[in-house]
From TrEMBL:
Pfam families: DUF2254. The chain crosses the membrane at residues 21-44, 73-95, 116-135, 147-170. Keywords: Membrane, Transmembrane, Transmembrane helix. This is DUF2254 domain-containing protein. The lineage of its organism: Bacteria, Pseudomonadati, Pseudomonadota, Alphaproteobacteria, Rhodobacterales. It comes from Pseudosulfitobacter koreensis.
Length: 417
């Protein structure tokens, strides 16, 4: 079972997402690139005639002692600055976690600016060390002094790049902990993901759902692992159901938490599937220790609601941050209502699952944020404005759902009028 899961497409997708959101991948890749670059420039220094143009004489007068001192100073300075940058990053992460919610830590870990900044400095440090060991002094053993002039020039260029990276980083860190930028980044990603989901639904031809036969054998399957559903390979499930004449009921949502022995799906088949088939079906799920945004749109909404709730807590009392979060929630819901006809439930012929709907988005966003907003007049008034604007944009069943939310609001919070 473990080997099947590790080789499944869902697990591979989860692994790719984990690598992309890790704080070590880009710095490690840049360090490896620095090692290759050091070997390349040293080869050029030993074979300068291979270049069509040589260096000017002003770049060729560096002596052995001067080269060593220059490379040592650059390396020491860069590693010192790297330590300070890492400390600043940890302070920013701690500040964001305490003020905006611990689930936002992943946004800082995935930040490409932080990853590239750390990678540039560490790779420059490694490059200087590799070139420093290539500098040779003449000695009694007959070795001639050797100064890798081209490598020295590249080291100076990396030093200037590191200075620019430091300047950028000192500007970037305050930007990343600006609450408006955090909510805007979440809001834009939410909008893009909803648009992508609607596009995917439009590209797939809808077919009538298959009904299990009355005498079908029902096989309930669990994953044997507890955690959050991070990836669900619906295409693979559909292919297996089609090949084996199954109907599969998926009982869990992407992003939901499942226990080790909880039933995640039910297979309706003419005969009970073999253990190998059951393992292949379960391998379509990838479970992790935390929610991610890879396939779970609701996680971004939860983060915006959490920011609004913390902003409206008695210890913070910041209605403007809450209003900003409500604005981005309204933008995401407006996209779900209006982009290419709106978000509608979708299904697959042989795989029945709970498709994301506008009603679900409405419940986890504005209905979830209502109790926090009602205690503050500014937030309450803006909540009403956002929901009424959604009511104007909604059509059909969506309009009735938004209207029902307003009715519930008037029933439970009559003082808001």
């Amino acid at each position: 079972m473990e080997n099947l899961m590790f080789g499944s497409r869902a697990y591979v997708q989860k692994l790719v997402q984990d690598v992309r959101s890790s704080y070590w991948f880009i710095p490690s890749a840049l360090v490896f690139a620095a090692l290759l670059l050091s070997e390349l420039t040293q080869w050029i220094d030993h074979n300068p005639d291979m270049l069509p143009v040589g260096l000017p004489d002003d770049f060729l007068d560096t002596q052995v002692d001067g080269a060593r001192q220059t490379l040592a100073v650059i390396a020491q300075s860069i590693i010192g600055v790297t330590g300070v940058m890492f400390s600043i990053t940890m302070v920013a992460v701690s500040f964001a976690s305490g003020n905006f919610g611990p689930r936002l830590i992943g946004n800082f870990m995935r930040d490409r600016g932080n990853q590239i900044s750390l990678g540039v400095l560490i790779s420059s440090f490694v490059y200087c060390l590799m070139i420093l060991r290539a500098v040779q002094s003449s000695g009694s053993d007959g070795l001639e002094s050797f100064v890798p002039q081209y490598s020295m020039l590249v080291a100076l260029m990396l030093m200037l790049m590191s200075v620019g990276t430091l300047i950028y980083f000192l500007h970037h860190i305050p930007e990343t902990i600006n609450v408006s930028n955090i909510s805007a980044d979440l809001g834009r990603r939410l909008e893009n993901r909803i648009e992508r989901l609607i596009d995917n639904h439009a590209d797939r031809n809808e077919e009538p759902a298959q009904v299990p036969a009355k005498d079908a054998v029902e096989t309930e399957l669990s994953l044997g692992h507890a955690g959050y559903i991070q990836q669900l390979d619906l295409d693979a499930l559909s292919d297996m159901a089609e090949q084996n004449d199954w109907v599969i009921d998926v009982n869990v949502d992407i992003g939901g938490f499942v226990s080790s022995h909880e039933t995640v799906l039910t297979v309706h088949s003419a005969s009970a599937p073999t253990p190998e088939m059951c393992d292949k079906v379960c391998a379509c799920f990838a479970v992790g220790e935390e929610q991610t945004e890879a396939q779970d749109i609701t996680f971004m909404i939860d983060q915006l609601v959490e920011m609004a709730a913390r902003a409206l807590s008695p210890g913070v009392n910041d209605p403007f941050t809450a209003i900003n979060c409500l604005n981005w929630l309204r933008n995401g819901l407006s996209t779900a209502l209006q982009y290419k006809g709106g978000l509608h439930p979708t299904s697959r012929p042989r795989v029945q699952y709970r498709s994301l709907t506008v009603l679900q988005l409405l419940n986890i966003s504005f209905r979830a944020a209502a109790p926090y907003c009602m205690a503050d007049k500014m937030a309450r008034d803006h909540w009403m404005f956002c929901v009424r604007s959604l009511l104007d944009a909604a059509m059909g069943e969506d309009k009735r759902n938004v209207s029902k939310l307003l009715e519930d609001f008037d029933k439970h919070y009559p003082e808001a009028d």
